[in-house]
């Protein structure tokens, strides 16, 4: 009887089909994790998929997208370059993905090159709108170089005005900031950045309609100007015109400026319009040594951190801000204000 029983068990065992995961299984698991924004898990599964099928262009593209999402743009570009070398004509989207990654890295010439290539090769593709937005924002960054205005003869005097206006703006002393900026614009009428700061100050001093009209006029003069677009995104948001605000914000999501002050402006704009995930990502990309003199850096970075669930990080940022800026310790934490 024991022999018969063993034979039955052996037969049952022989009839079992073992489950052996393949590349498609790993790919599906990776996509599921990615859609749930569990990027570390997605990366693990997708790497297994690529190990199983190293030349599968779809797997490589999806792995590159995960690397992009976690900020590993160089790794993403290596994969996309590999795809283009082996299957370029079948995976034209890779050109746009490369353009997007180069824009994140601040390599705008490369970003423009690949965005143009994408539009040339697939003028009706899925990323046409995004590619055109990206090209517009690259032009915007170039326009911002013109926004500094002509060379100023008396740079020392201009610097005094800049520092004074900056102090009042950072401390939200709007009336004092307005007085300084008005005098500054009288003496240096071609200094464009002061015009945007003036619009920002008068908006916060309850002259919203005047500020809005001024910034719209400035945008007409330089249609791709980053300062105009960040101001208008915030103005419309605070005026409860969320749809108009979102139109500006969607365009700004694709731009990564070269200048640290512009990077900070974007991060603060995203935080103040409650786009906390994007804001937090932008704040983390900043060179703190170049922006630690801004109270607004600590204020809005801590707010963004708090609202994405990084409460301890928010407290650390705020404590550091209080240490560096004597006027802050008596203020309530900004996410509680």
From TrEMBL:
It holds the Pfam family TPR_8. Keywords: Repeat, TPR repeat. It comes from the Bacteria. Gene3D superfamilies: Tetratricopeptide repeat domain. InterPro entries: TPR-like_helical_dom_sf, TPR_rpt, Ycf3/AcsC/BcsC/TPR_MFPF. TPR repeats lie at residues 23-56. PANTHER family: CELLULOSE SYNTHASE OPERON PROTEIN C, TPR REPEAT-CONTAINING PROTEIN MJ0263. This is Tetratricopeptide repeat-containing protein.
């Amino acid at each position: 009887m024991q022999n018969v029983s063993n034979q039955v068990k052996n037969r049952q065992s022989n009839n079992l089909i073992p489950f052996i995961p393949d590349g498609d299984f790993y790919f599906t698991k990776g996509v599921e994790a990615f859609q749930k924004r569990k990027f570390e898990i997605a990366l693990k599964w997708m790497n297994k998929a690529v190990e199983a099928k190293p030349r599968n262009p779809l797997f490589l593209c999806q792995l590159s997208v995960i690397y992009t999402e976690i900020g590993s743009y160089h790794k993403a570009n290596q994969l996309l370059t590999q795809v283009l070398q082996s299957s370029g004509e079948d995976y034209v989207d890779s050109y746009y993905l490369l353009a997007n990654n180069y824009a994140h890295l601040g390599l705008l010439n490369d970003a423009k090159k690949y965005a143009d290539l994408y539009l040339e090769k697939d003028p009706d593709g899925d990323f046409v709108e995004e590619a055109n937005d990206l090209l517009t924002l690259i032009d915007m960054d170039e326009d911002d170089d013109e926004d500094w205005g002509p060379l100023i003869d008396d740079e020392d005097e201009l610097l005094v005005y800049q520092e004074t206006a900056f102090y009042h703006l950072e401390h939200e002393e709007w009336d004092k900031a307005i007085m300084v900026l008005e005098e500054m614009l009288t003496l240096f009428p071609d200094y464009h950045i002061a015009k945007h700061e003036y619009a920002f100050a008068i908006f916060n001093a309850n002259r919203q309609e005047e500020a809005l009209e001024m910034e719209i006029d400035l945008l007409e003069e330089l249609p791709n100007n980053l300062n105009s677009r960040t101001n208008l995104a915030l103005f419309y948001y605070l005026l409860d015109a969320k749809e108009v605000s979102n139109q500006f914000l969607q365009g700004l999501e694709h731009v990564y400026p070269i200048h640290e002050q512009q990077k900070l402006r974007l991060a603060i704009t995203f935080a103040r319009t409650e786009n906390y995930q994007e804001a937090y990502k932008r704040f983390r990309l900043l060179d703190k040594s170049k922006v630690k003199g801004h109270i607004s850096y600590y204020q809005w970075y801590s707010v963004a951190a708090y609202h994405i669930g990084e409460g301890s990080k928010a407290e650390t940022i705020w404590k550091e801000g209080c240490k560096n800026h004597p006027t802050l310790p008596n203020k309530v934490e900004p996410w509680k204000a």
